[in-house]
Amino acid sequence: MADIIKNSREVIRVTRGEFKGHDMVNVRVFFDAGEGEMKPGKQGVAFRAALLPDVLDALNQFMGGNV
């Protein structure tokens, strides 16, 4: 699991796990529900871990300002 601070109330949480026998990557926004409890929001995406290299390649295109 990895957390990326989005702002003072939200983090982007990246996890990897199994769903119905499939190796999955889940990227979801969690929000502060009070008293230090983080709850998942509606925003997010889940995809098969086999697609991770393609997703990373697509994201890397934006690192240098290339679109």
Secondary-structure blueprint:
Layout: E1 2-5, E2 10-19, E3 22-32, E4 38-48, H1 52-60
Antiparallel strand pairs: 1-2, 2-3, 3-4
Shape: flat
Q: Which percent band covers the strand fraction?
A: over 45%
Count of distinct strands: 4
Class of secondary structure makeup: mainly beta
- Largest sheet, spatial ordering of strands: 1-2-3-4
Contiguous uncertain segments of 5+ residues: none
Continuous helix count: 1
How far apart the termini lie comes to 28 Å
List SSEs in N-to-C order: EEEEH
The value of Rg in angstroms is 14 Å
Average pLDDT taken over every residue: 93
Helix content: 10-25%
Sketch the major β-sheet: 4 strands, antiparallel
What does this structure look like?
With 67 residues, this protein is mainly β. The protein has one helix at residues 52-60; strands spanning 2-5, 10-19, 22-32, 38-48. A four-stranded antiparallel beta sheet has the order 1-2-3-4, with no helix packed on it. Strand 2 and strand 3 form a beta hairpin. The longest helix has 9 residues, at 52-60. The mean pLDDT is 93.
Entry summary:
Helices cover 13% and strands 54% of the residues. The protein has one helix spanning 52-60, and strands at residues 2-5, 10-19, 22-32, 38-48.
Key features of this structure:
67 residues; mainly beta; 1 helix; 13% helix
